[in-house]
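User: Could you go from structure to sequence for me? I need the amino acid at each position, not a summary. Structure tokens:
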């Protein structure tokens, strides 16, 4: 494929917005006795442990940090989540949240570790699978990225960002016919995505399909106005 400037897909996070009530965990350190002058959260007539409310607060903080791209808030969320993990908390949602805050801070190696741990604890954690694929693609590890991107797409055919990253990663690996085929399918689903259409034009040109390349460039130019 002819050399051309690389335009990375913008990182967009998608998270599992559930905070599960009963995560799989080892016993965290015993919380201090609640201050009797404070409100105590109760569920089914029993007091909710302090570590559980702390976990919910930290996960919420991590999600707000990602939504707002707030690195300072991500640091605070990470500290709270790491504290819980160091005290024995072990569940997939918490590990995924940790990976997300590290990904936001561009600490890709740490993010990858936590995404892998999240998937080990719960192989069905689709949000963690998505995040791992994003982290690997962001790091330029395209051979590994396409494996997880393809796996995610087996379950979700309508995630435009993931499909765009998959198209881009295939192109980086010089798997041009596959990239062109996927890009063509993508523009049928997402006809207003300028970036994917530009990549499709480039792949068509590389494959000698000059007429189709010109047509997609023309559409991309019109969309960008």
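Assistant: Here is the amino acid at each position, in order:
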């Amino acid at each position: 494929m002819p050399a051309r400037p690389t335009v990375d897909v913008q990182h967009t996070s998608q998270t599992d917005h559930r905070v599960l009530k009963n995560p799989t965990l080892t016993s965290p350190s015993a919380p201090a006795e609640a201050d009797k002058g404070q409100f105590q959260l109760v569920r089914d007539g029993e007091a909710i442990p302090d570590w559980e409310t702390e976990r919910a607060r930290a996960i919420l903080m991590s999600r707000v940090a990602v939504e707002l791209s707030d690195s300072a808030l991500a640091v605070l969320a990470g500290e709270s989540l790491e504290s819980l993990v160091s005290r024995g908390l072990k569940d997939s949602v918490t590990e995924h949240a940790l990976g997300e805050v590290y990904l936001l801070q561009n600490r890709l190696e740490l993010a990858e570790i936590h995404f892998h741990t999240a998937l080990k604890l719960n192989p069905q954690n689709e949000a963690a699978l998505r995040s791992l694929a994003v982290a690997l693609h962001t790091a330029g590890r395209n051979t590994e990225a396409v494996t997880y991107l393809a796996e995610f797409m087996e379950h979700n055919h309508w995630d435009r960002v993931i499909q765009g990253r998959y198209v881009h990663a295939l192109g980086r690996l010089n798997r041009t016919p596959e990239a062109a085929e996927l890009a063509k399918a993508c523009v049928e689903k997402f006809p207003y995505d300028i970036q994917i259409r530009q990549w499709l034009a480039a792949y068509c040109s590389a494959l000698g399909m000059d007429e189709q390349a010109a047509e997609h460039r023309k559409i991309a130019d019109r969309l960008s106005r």
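One structural detail worth keeping in mind: The CA atoms of residues 129 and 151 lie 8 Å apart.
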